Predict the 3D structure of the following.
Amino acid sequence: ALPISVGHAAGAYAKPDGYTLTLVTLEIASMHWLGLTPLTYEDFDYIAQVNFDPAGLIVKGDSEWNSAVELLVDVAMNPGKYLFSGSGVGSVWDLARIGMFNAVGIPPDYTTWIPTTGAAAAVVELLGGHVDAITSSIPEVWPQIASGDLKALAIMADERDPRYSNIPTLKEIGIDWSAGTWRGIAVPKGTPPEIKDLLEEKIIKIAQSQDFKDFMDKNGFGIKIRGSQEFTEYVAEQDKVWREILQIGGYLPE
């Protein structure tokens, strides 16, 4: 998390003249709660969101679980039996798991989180039978899903992803939880309004272009566009959500 906090800090403390843009990530709403930085989401003015990739609930292709409900019922009935992975402790994929459990009343310690360096390492653990399920973005595991080695039981999003329209959302099955990684453009607090308005117009135009869509598709990123006001509200909401989930998970510093 250190390079992320350093990058965000460099952007937040730059001269507010419109020449320094920061690609902010969801960590701006979580890393200060973990004590990793004094920086908070309020240190930026938000121009536009351009990306969202929901967390997916992934199991082996030959798993007996064929739906998220089946898996969650099993977890609820067998505390301590199952192992999950996806990335590091307190990472977005760990928090996605905790939030999903919380939405259905399952304590986070009903499963053990096995930390890895990221989704690629977690896939190795899952394919090797060392963990029972992982949470990650779908693009990170798509080759294994396409081959049938893995299967996605659900994505944690408000609506189905058109790229993977056969994968249901948790909300479809009555679980009110969505989570994932997101990215957007922000500028230092105090940047003049006329500069922010111009940047918002230009960035949204770029995000709606075919070139941008092609780039994002090629690299496995989802597109989600929010303008300045909506993005600002979203980040503030995310800050509250991640604090709550970090607290439930027992990750907040004393």
